[in-house]
Design goal:
This protein is mostly helical. It has 17 helices and five strands. The radius of gyration is 22 Å and the shape is globular. It binds zinc ion (2 copies). The site of one zinc ion has 6 residues, from helix 4 and helix 6.
Length: 392
Amino acid sequence: VVSEPDTGTTVNAVIAYLLFNGVSLGEVMEARVTLEQIVAELAATRADDLQIALLRAQVERETPDQIDGTDRHHILHTMIAQTAANPAAELFVEILGRLTVQWVYPAVSKRRRYEALSASHAAHRALVDAIAGGDQVRCQHIMRRHLDGMARWIDEHPGEPQLTPWAPIGGVPKLGEQLAHSIAVDIVAGRKMPGNVIGSEAELIEQYGLSRSAFREGVRLLEFQRLATMRHGVGGLVVTSPNVSAIVDAAAVYLEFRHITADDLMEMRRGLELRAIELAARRLTADDASMLQGILEEELATDYSAPAGGRLHQVLAGLSGNRALTLFIHVLARLTMNFAEQPSPTTSRFAELARSTHQAHQAIVDALVAGDGQLARRRLGKHLDALGPLMH
Ligand SMILES: [Zn+2]
Ligand SMILES: [Zn+2]
């Protein structure tokens, strides 16, 4: 068990999970546009003088002459997320930023890269100016244009993007981290499949030239990421398929550790779920519609009362077709359970909550199934607003 979840370990675990499940660059950019517009708006509202000075200093440090600028480019996005002062926003921006740079274009010319970095630099300057001015609308707008531009640049690019091994976060990784990373890259790339035996403890220690304690540290990290586990009966370290609930737990534990509040959660849920339902409305099939009806019937049958973290929200997220957004919404919904009022099942309060929750859910699904995505979005927004006062 990793006792103190650090950012790097959590970010790497989520990245490994999303790549393992074949997340596309398009999904990553779509999630970024959604998330970082919210973040930009929050940063404009919350930045203090010191943060503004630091953001301005960072923009001055960025110059398009840095040809290997992709990693450096993300520093400003990280700082803006920190300014937004929401641990979930920070975690998700970090995950998506590090995912974006997984796709590299070996064929890109120095000139094209220079042009892209110049455009980013100008966008960053305008963004920080809008944050300094506290202009939320302008901030959102500039962030959207900046990320759309980035996505377009990626789209227009000739040739398929290449997925590269992601680098572990933070300085020179320890030997155990290097072992975990190299095995994780093999698993994500499909070179090692679930059930495959990677090797026995003695073999791997010899192969990687590690101490026993470094080896065990590496195994702990792989187990935390749910990518591999030690099974002594079958000869050592075995690949496991990372399952969603394990990764959701890992991210949720990290955010609890970062003292995420109910307000932080609802602010992010609102932003991400409203976008997800718009996407879901565009691609809803007849099968999806009957599945949603099935969930509503289940709610009735089970005297359903999980007003805040309910299954319907997770299923709606999944229907967006965006695996990054879906995962983030799962994490937030799971954490919401920690804060939500949970009256005892025998009370009238319980019955009242169950009824109002179910009614709200029914209204959302009705609009969605009728093909009115905007009305569904509006109803979901009202439902989420009504949850705020139920949290403590
Ligand atoms: Zn940028
Ligand atoms: Zn609900």
